[in-house]
């Protein structure tokens, strides 16, 4: 049995977790989830019926992890040999920008895709404030990245880059994020990662099969 069972659909946020699995070199078995016929074992693991879902077959028993950001951080913890965890000096940026992506960026991209933007009166209740405020904050941060400090935590690529990078990559691919110079440069850096390319190749092939 593989170390992980990975429930996914290639046309989903499962692409984020596949990239993370490849970055840590995890031994995993994929189970493709059909939206109209979800496997019983999958629903038992995650009653929400959402992908990605990972079941870690650890020595002490199975551990279920859901939510893409949580799965990414969990994989980094389970595979310290991959060197994707932050050191003490990197921890603030690591957690801040992972959860900025999981919160404001995810929410503002979704609201924009659904053609809903909060009114000025509603912005206090909206966790992302507004699309423009979120984009400005992200741009100001990524604009500080340099060739010597290209990643979220500076010189080193960490799991925070998998999650934030996936958000930027997805948003730009679908034309929701504006093509700001800092966004384009960051997207190009993550797209050059061998693990990114390997994971995307798997999902792209699966998508092509589904379309036939």
Summarize the structure.
The protein is 50% helix and 10% strand. The protein is α+β, with helices and mostly antiparallel strands and 212 residues long.
How would you explain this protein's 3D organization?
A hairpin with a 2-residue loop joins strand 3 and strand 4. This protein is globular. The model has no long low-confidence stretch (mean pLDDT 96). It has two domains: 4-83, Glutaredoxin; 91-195, Glutathione S-transferase Yfyf (Class Pi), Chain A, domain 2 (Up-down Bundle), CATH 1.20.1050. The protein has a four-stranded mixed sheet, covered by helices on one side. Helix 1 runs antiparallel to helix 6 (159-173), helix 1 (14-24) crosses helix 8 and helix 6 (159-173) packs across helix 7. The longest helix is centred in the middle third of the chain and has 23 residues, at 91-113. With 212 residues, it is of the alpha+beta class. 50% of the residues lie in helices and 10% in strands.
CATH arch. level architecture of the largest domain:
Up-down Bundle
What's the arrangement of strands in the largest beta sheet?
A: 2-1-3-4
Distance between the termini: 31 Å
Total separate domains: 2
Global Rg: 17 Å
Assembly category: single chain
Look at the structure and give the mean pLDDT: 96
**Sheet with the most strands?**
4 strands, mixed
The percentage of residues in β strands lies in 5-15%
Written as H for each helix and E for each strand, in order along the chain, the element string is EHEHEEHHHHHH
Are there runs of 5+ residues with pLDDT below 50, and where?
A: none
Helix-strand category? alpha+beta
Overall geometry comes to globular
Topology, number of strands = 4
- Report the total helices: 8
**According to CATH, what is the topology of the largest domain?**
Glutathione S-transferase Yfyf (Class Pi), Chain A, domain 2
Helix content estimate: 40-55%
CATH class of the largest domain: Mainly Alpha
């Amino acid at each position: 049995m593989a170390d992980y069972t990975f429930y996914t659909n290639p046309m989903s946020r499962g692409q984020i977790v596949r990239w993370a699995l490849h970055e840590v070199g995890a031994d995993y078995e994929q189970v493709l989830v059909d939206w109209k016929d979800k496997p019983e074992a999958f629903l038992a693991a995650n009653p929400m019926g959402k992908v990605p879902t990972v079941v870690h077959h650890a020595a002490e028993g199975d551990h279920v992890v859901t939510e893409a950001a949580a799965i990414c951080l969990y994989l980094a913890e389970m595979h310290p040999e991959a060197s994707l965890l932050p050191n003490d000096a990197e921890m603030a940026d690591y957690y801040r920008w992972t959860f900025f992506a999981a919160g404001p960026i995810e929410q503002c991209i979704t609201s924009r895709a659904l053609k809903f933007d909060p009114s000025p009166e509603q912005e206090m209740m909206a966790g992302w404030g507004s699309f423009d405020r979120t984009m400005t904050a992200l741009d100001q941060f990524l604009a500080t990245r340099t060739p010597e400090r290209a990643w979220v935590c500076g010189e080193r690529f960490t799991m925070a880059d998998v999650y934030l990078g996936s958000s930027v990559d997805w948003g730009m691919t679908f034309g929701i994020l504006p093509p700001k110079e800092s966004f384009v440069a960051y997207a190009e850096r993550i797209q050059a990662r061998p693990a990114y390319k390997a994971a995307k190749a798997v999902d792209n092939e699966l998508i092509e099969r589904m379309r036939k």
